Structures
1.
Amino acid sequence: MDQAALISELDPVIERLFDRHLESSKEWFPHEHVPHSRGRDFDEGEEWSPEQADLAGAELTDAVRSALYVNLLTEDNLPYYFRTVESMFGADGTWGEWVRRWTAEEGRHSMVIYGYLAATRAIDLKHLERGRMAQVSKGETPQPANLQEGFVYLALQELATRISHRNTGNQIGDPVGYDVMRRVCADENLHQLFYRDLAAAAFEVDPDMMMVALEAQVRTFAMPGTGIPDFDHHAAKIAQAGIYDLQIHHEQILAPVVLRQWDAENITGLSGEGAAAQEKLMKRMAKSEKVAKRYAERRAAQADRDLQLA
């Protein structure tokens, strides 16, 4: 099925999902979640130090600072995500309405996270701005090969982003920072439900190409922050802190969506190409599970060592 035909077949589905989204979403205002009373003017040329942070007595680890840096710069790259999604979905009808609504909601995320960081001086804002300029000037984003891969990627990525934000909030230690990340997560959750269910409907309409797309995206999935300066360095610290790593990726993204929600193992009626992709997918999922178990064992062993040293 070509992409125009798939879009046409899914018109009733996206209308239903868009209506559901509008009924579920709640109006909120970024400025109401920012602790403005903690802020003060920045002197020209003033250099930042961790001691400046006002986090209600909490002390951020380097890993949490890395997560806040990466999470915000990921949100700042929204213009390029919009371009990619609109190029797949088109600007007309409910498809275009959804893309614009999604973009408007996503725009609040960078506003509220940046407002929190600026008011609390939680991280170095000069370093953050230089990272933003580099990230947005580069404009690097994942580029799904076709509409089917786009459905899969968006569903997995929105869930991964929600979990990364949530785990960052859990480790901030500041109740206001936790609230900021919780509020962002609420939007991300609605977005991932939309894309998850859109992809599920696409499996019913075009199971072969969706299975091929699913195998390709599980094999090549990358978070959208890969264009951020020093991304690998920050990602390593984020993984070590248990904010987002391969165990989380398997247990909280791949297994719930691929195996339980989409039930990929039991999709039937596939042609040769789809069936071959399904077989490859299940082998990769088994490998991913083994990697996740190794991560869990390493983390448990490290926790035991830390306890013995305490």
2.
Amino acid sequence: MQKKNSHSLFGIVQELKKINPFLDLKVGSADTNLKKKFPTIGKILFNVEDVREYMALLKALSPLFVKILKGRIDNATPGKVTQWLGLESILDGKQVVDELKRIG
């Protein structure tokens, strides 16, 4: 649902409506205002150019995600890592794989 409506607030509101069907929440303006005041995770992560800095930031934001990545890295191609992380090129994915192995 949230993908179709372009924001996660829609999905949250739908879950809240399951609890209270009479709840009438409007989230469109809240979503717009949040985007104006706070950068998205993508803007934070993809603003970094150095792979080590990128991985350190990713680990700080989501250590569990990095732990899961490290657990799957031996069975993944750089192309798959590129897809998982929304990176632009397989070269970026290869650098991330190398960095994940380095921080082991």
